[in-house]
Amino acid sequence: MSDLHLDLKNLIIDALGLEDISVDDIDNDAPLFGEGLGLDSVDALELGLAVQKHFSIKIDADSKDVRQHFASINALANFVASKQ
Amino acid sequence: MKFNISAWRAWAPGLSTQEDWLGWLADPQQLSSQDAADVSFLPAMQRRRLSPLARMAFHVAWPLAEQSPKQPVVFCSRHGETLRNLNLLKQMAEQEILSPTHFSLSVHNAIIGLWSIFRQDESEMTAIAATQDGLEHAVIEAQLLLSSGADSVLLIIAEEQQPELYLPWIKDVPFAYALALQLTRGDAWSLSLSLSKEPSILKKQAWPHALSLLPLLLKQATQVTHSVDTRCWQWQVTL
Fold first, then answer.
1. A residues 53-82 near B, CB within 8 Å?
2. How far does A15 lie from chain B, in Å, by closest CA?
3. Domains of chain B, with CATH numbers?
4. Residue B202 has pLDDT above 80, yes or no
5. Which residue ranges in chain A fall short of pLDDT 50?
6. ipTM of the shown complex
7. Was domain A3-83 assigned CATH 1.10.1200.10?
8. Inter-axis angle of helices B52-66 and B110-119, nearest 10
9. I need a labelling partner for A53 at 20 to 30 A (CA). Which of A10, B32, B52, B156 fits?
């Protein structure tokens, strides 16, 4: 697991208060929302904010690609890497 | 007005069962612990968004609701989500972007909203904030729901430990507490209001007012009075 992947998993656990989940429970390829981790729309907003703050990047909420970028840990890691 | 109280539960840091409360009443002490109310009966995904206030409310009310079918809820808190709101104000002052979770759960009816979702209960639910006689106003609200056909109403009153910054102005919350009462139609309990000419002077309270019902609930006393401004409330129970 890369540092970025690990960093993202810890960010998700902290920002969304997932007290009984550890980084090992989050699969890089599994969907973050709906099935998989089971996050909801409030989590989506919260995670978007946390990612912007933590990595000092800007996310255009109107962009159609946002949904893709937040689909899984792998997708999010690629997105963050491309913005840095 | 007359009603019955068919079940109740109270919580304060370190106190939760009837035995705990009997012990505390024998020698009432200020409670300073920061313990959070236990809500381990909820799945972690639901629990994670609950504030200390919401945890207290769920802790006292959930077991009462498990005994009954769906029922209306009256939630009362004078100060509400003070901790969440103060944190949001601090973040605004720092010109930070506000947390969507904290923002959406900072309103006064957030707790009954979560209650309704978690319990899948679409009954009528009301959140009120009144002054130091919020409890009595909540009973009026509950009485109205009983009169319009509800078989029982769950009344929850709760206050969290208030932030240091606000303490000079807060006289009615010496420590965090929550009380849940299940009200039904009946005449064992009565609550009446009389008005005095002179307003009573607001003193800093040693105990939260809601907890002064405990001796009645535990059959150690049959009446208690509570004066706020010119309103004088009298609670009475026939044993």
1. 53
2. 9
3. 2-186 (3.40.47.10)
4. no
5. none
6. 0.80
7. yes
8. 40
9. B52
